[in-house]
Amino acid sequence: MDVLWVVAHPEPRSLTGVLAAEGRAALEEQGHRVAVSNLYAMRWDPVLTREDYGLDANERLFVSHGSRRAYDAGTLPPEIRAEQEKLRRADALVLQFPLWWFGMPAILKGWVDRVFVDGFAYGVRGPDGRTRRYGDGVLAGKRALVVTTTGGPDSAFGPRGINGHVEELLFPLLHGTLFYAGATVLPPLLVPGADRFTEEDRLRAGAALRGRLAGLGTDAPLPFRPQRGGDYDEHLVLRPHLTPGQAGLSVHMADSPEVRAAS
Q: Which InterPro entries does the UniProt record give (predicted)?
């Protein structure tokens, strides 16, 4: 497989940095080809500007329209087009970052904002004229794994943990970005204790990462419901016979995190 590994941490000696190097080595040992986008090392600019789309100061910035026009014309900045080409080539995508304030570092959010433009990751229509999203799109057929480190214990991110279940904390990324763009999304790997990791912790985390990477092409994905699978009505609302009486993020999975945790 061709794998794109996107890592967002400013310190290469951090647990994130150490695991990124180990993960790449593990994939290459398995015979995979790995491209790395180390956003801090690249000095990636996370700020979307009108200059991305070739707009002058007198033109109002409409992000969707502007990005679509620049994408179709092939005039997006070269650094954006390079990342899009990496995504096209990849069979799998790994996003690795520390969980800061329950989300991605700004530099990684900015990578998504600038790379996942209209015409590339959204606003794409199929031959039937219908919009491709939620299980269909540019990332269709590609697998995606999120690896995130945190300072707290993993139990605090479980189904009843005070921090919230990790799959729900990462729902905007897992479902609203990766699955929206068509990827087959694997359960995230949460690595706890990043601020105080010892050599023993590193070995344990490295083994867990290697185990997940060994199943990158075969492990069962999160059971998100595709938009065009019949579970949603014409208003994009889950049909009432599915998980009746329930609401919230978990209803958009064919089974709930609690069921998977107990299995």
A: Flavodoxin_fold (IPR003680), Flavoprotein-like_sf (IPR029039), NAD(P)H_dehydrogenase_qn (IPR051545)
